[in-house]
Design a protein that fits this description.
Blueprint lengths: L1 H9 L9 E5 L4 H14 L4 E4 L11 E3 L2 E2 L2 H14 L2 H4 L4 H15 L4 E5 L14 E6 L7 H4 L3 H8 L9 E3 L4 H13 L4 E3 L4 E5 L5 E5 L3 E5 L8 H17 L6 H10 L7 E4 L3 E4 L5 H14 L5 E5 L7 H8 L5 E4 L10 H11 L3 E3 L3 H13 L5 E5 L2 H21 L1
Parallel strand pairs: 1-5, 1-6, 2-5, 6-7, 7-8, 13-17, 14-15, 14-17, 15-16
Antiparallel strand pairs: 2-3, 3-4, 9-10, 10-11, 12-13
Amino acid sequence: MERVKDALAALGHPERDYPALHVAGTNGKGSTCAFVARALEAAGHRVGLYTSPHLVRVNERIRVRGEDILDAVFGQRILEVLERYPSALSDPMTYFEFGTVVALWHFSRERVDVAVLETGLGGRLDATTAANPVVTCVTPVSFDHMEYLGHTLREIAWEKAGIFKFGVPVVLSRQEPEALESLLRRAEQLSVPVQVEGRDFGIVPGSDGTLSYRGSGWSLDGVTLALRGPYQHQNAAVALACLAALRDRGVKVTPEAAREGLATARWPGRLEEVAQSPVVVVDGAHNPAGVAVLLEALDSLYAGRPLHLVFGVVADKDRGPMMQALFPLAASVHLTPLDTPRSLAPERYIDEARVLCPRVVAHASLEEALAGARADAVGRPDGVVLATGSLFLVGAVKRWVDRSLGATRQQQ
């Protein structure tokens, strides 16, 4: 953390120029941040949103008023930071550290009213922890990045709780018991007021297809969500609790703005349909907990339709549980390499895959994998192609779609 703190000090502490919501967790962080940011924008605030990783372009990580930072502005901000903190080059900061400092500086220069910040990894040693939150939040904690965060939920949750600040309110999603115990213990040590999903707030579906929220801050009926999947109900509940906590800390939000934010939020790469004929869906599930909620959503949205998987995974992920949950449900599985040095070659795990699904093909490229899955889907009525297993894969599929659309427009 020393380099990030030194850089921010050299910049005159831009992180102190605006209040922030700081969100950690294993799954659901991005969607929760998207819900909150959109609701704050609907309330009339100039909002800075910092998330990671990006899917297609790094500019996606830094947004103001819902717009990615422009290339020219991004370059200008980088030069401004380097001019004020040349040590970023002589004592190189990590990619994420430097990006975080640039984002916090940009939000200050853009005079945002409030910032919404997503941690990159963990919390205690994450660069975003140098920010100035007035509310913190932890979404569901599960097993991921265990080589850095620990091998038990208690240890991982303790790292996530590193974003807590003395006396700053925290919102917690529903958690596994040992994770919740660890989070609550850290909150008690820091005299942190805590709101826990299921105990202090929650959201339930109504008979008319809308949702109803009940919490200490407010009660809302007739809530609809722009983001698909039953798991978004939890993210929406946590977002509404965060908005209520922000309101208590002086950030004005009306019930109408909260409803509008949840009904219009966008978050690419989560159950996103990117092509038709056949339907191609991308989802960023990349750990066992993420796959579990993905399966629940698939059962809700595509029940009974043949599923053709395009699957790619990085070598340091716990692929076994993901494969065991997904592959037996698939009519075909198409394994693809990823465009990252961390990619696990399909040949390395094709034998594992063939135990779980009768039709498994290893491909040399994503284009080949997509072509194979789409051909299989076209041959079966109502077939659905699902690309999942890694956010690297989601970004690559979205780039492929953009290229395909561009080629189609040129032909027309």
